[in-house]
Design goal:
It is built from six helices and twelve strands. The chain is α+β, with helices and mostly antiparallel strands.
Length: 238
């Protein structure tokens, strides 16, 4: 499988691609790490299973990332949407690893923030994928307003986002999350007569000095599980 994926990505991207590495987790989407043309990239590809029937298509997810990036959000650069990668849709974007490595090189302190849009399934079931996409854009714009231009923000999966807040201690990270939650609660979404009240469950974690990137990814996943379980507008520090 890995050989055909490498060959297919080389044809799509027009450059040499390293052997893809399948990352852990992902019930509805596969995540593959590759190096291509000197860049560290992430390939998200549809998997066999789905978490729930309202999971957004990768085409819509890619469109959200493109819109956020174009709007000035410090987000992973979208590279390409691929409608058919061995029978399943996929897209390619930058990997989070760059900012992690920046912190390791410079010893900069930073907080990792995670966010879960609590009502994504409800919005999708009442207004379809168009309303769900609008809700994700709405959240991305709200997040951008309360984060510095040097900070990093990216889509993780479904209604989940991950941000990097440079130079932040726990108090600053908590304050940012609370301001984001309050801002979204005060600014609902209107769609062709349909009104949605949105909320974000949030989490904060701090990378350890000797922590590897895969270890950080696993802690982010664990934090998101806790955030989803605690639910509406909660704030978790791990």
């Amino acid at each position: 499988m890995i050989a055909w994926m490498r060959d297919a990505l080389q044809a799509e991207l027009g450059t040499d691609v390293s052997e893809p590495v399948l990352l852990a987790g992902g019930a509805s989407k596969e995540a593959w790490a590759v190096d291509a043309g000197g860049e560290k990239l992430l390939v998200r590809r549809a998997a066999v299973g789905v978490i729930h029937k309202h999971t957004l298509s990768l085409e819509h997810e890619y469109a959200v990332i493109e819109a956020a990036y174009a709007a000035g959000v410090k987000a992973p650069r979208p590279i390409r949407y691929i409608p058919d990668l061995d029978g399943r849709e996929a897209f390619v974007m930058e990997r989070l690893r760059q900012d992690f490595e920046r912190g390791k090189r410079s010893n900069d302190s930073y907080a990792v923030l995670v966010f879960h849009l609590d009502q994504l399934g409800f919005v999708a079931s009442h207004g379809g994928e168009a309303d769900a996409e609008a809700a994700l854009r709405h959240v991305a714009n709200s997040l951008r307003k309360h984060m510095d231009t040097s900070d990093w923000l990216g889509r993780w999966d479904g209604g989940e986002f991950v941000g990097v807040l440079w130079g932040a201690d726990e108090a600053a990270a908590r304050d940012t999350c609370c301001r984001l939650q309050d801002s979204l609660a005060d600014d609902g979404l209107m769609r062709e007569g349909r009104s949605y009240s949105l909320s974000l469950s949030s989490g904060v974690l701090f990378p350890g000095r000797d922590e590897t990137f895969p270890q950080l990814v696993e802690r982010i996943r664990a934090c998101l599980v806790t955030v989803r379980e605690r639910g509406r507008n909660s704030l978790t520090v791990m």
